[in-house]
Amino acid sequence: AQKVTQAQTEISVVEKEDVTLDCVYETRDTTYYLFWYKQPPSGELVFLIRRNSFDEQNEISGRYSWNFQKSTSSFNFTITASQVVDSAVYFCALSEAYNNDMRFGAGTRLTVKP
Amino acid sequence: DSGVTQTPKHLITATGQRVTLRCSPRSGDLSVYWYQQSLDQGLQFLIQYYNGEERAKGNILERFSAQQFPDLHSELNLSSLELGDSALYFCASSPSGSYNEQFFGPGTRLTVL
Fold first, then answer.
1. For residue A114, with 0-12 CB atoms within 10 Å meaning exposed, 13-18 middle and 19 or more buried, which class applies?
2. Cβ of A97 under 8 Å from any chain B Cβ?
3. Which among A43, A47, A99 is the nearest to B101, CB-wise?
């Protein structure tokens, strides 16, 4: 069965520090999709990125970057030069191609202090 | 704003009662998903509907049911409520399957007293 592990429960950094949020997944499927979502204090879940299992290219979007490594079943998320507005809970999620059950990790609470 | 709307925003009720949560998906999206977020269980997938038909079931209790109507809005019915049902209930939508990114509504916070 699919599983997502976010081992870091809470991370606290000072503004402008770089921070990496870890995500390790388990699946038996060869076709699957990985996602990151952000949940700010206001509570809504905001989609950040989607990756399919055939695309191992790293992605950069502004201060955000993602490192997908099939060899270690990891899909890590790095925020460069963190800002207070980055404070949120970040969820990694996995969806298998033929299973409509999207599985979320437990989330990592990131606090960025000024 | 994701384009997904949920009503009501907050709901306070008593044990044993029944409530209905409503969700309108983004324009053009055929799939609707329901999730429950609680402190002890995290974010759990409950059920998915696609174009009016149930597509997938997750950890949904028998006391809970859902449906998707012809106009694609969806309702989640929670009955015989227990204290442990207090949680944030999210609806999400996507164009088709869960391999698409899902866009989440603002959630309904249910408090069972």
1. exposed
2. yes
3. A47
